[in-house]
Amino acid sequence: MTQLSTGLIYSPELNKLCYSNDFVVNSGLNLQNIASKLGIYAEYISDEERDLLHARSIGIKIFTEDKNELDYSLSSDVDIEREIEILSIQNQEYSDIILEEFNYIKNTEHNILLLQIAILLKRHLDDMNTNVYLMRGSGISSFIFYAMGLNKVNPLKFGLDYKNFWNN
Question: Is the pTM of this model over 0.70?
Fold first, then answer.
């Protein structure tokens, strides 16, 4: 299990992203908004289920409240504005496209949340050093994902519109 943010984890055991009440509280959104936007990307789990997954992942066979010494501190903050600025600097010839897409993303709450998750996921994949990044479906139309390295297909080359992904 890898904690990407407070209450947001990747569970190899379940092979999916999971979020708990901590994530709901820290995101500033309500559970219904998160569930409708992340429903196909992640699964809600109770705090107790999250704790049990964490306990199993670090080898704790018996998990009791009195022995709970687990640290759920935020593993990494995401300054999305700064991340986009860095992407723009690193990809100067496409800076206008990156900024245009980012401005489009900012129009809805759930899109910012998805971008934050993508940034945290990219960091996690980089830390694992596997060089394996898979995008499928309309996600490959995002130039930001391409600039980040999450997507290996240049959407401009194939005339793909980032709005196809961010409108879902």
Answer: no
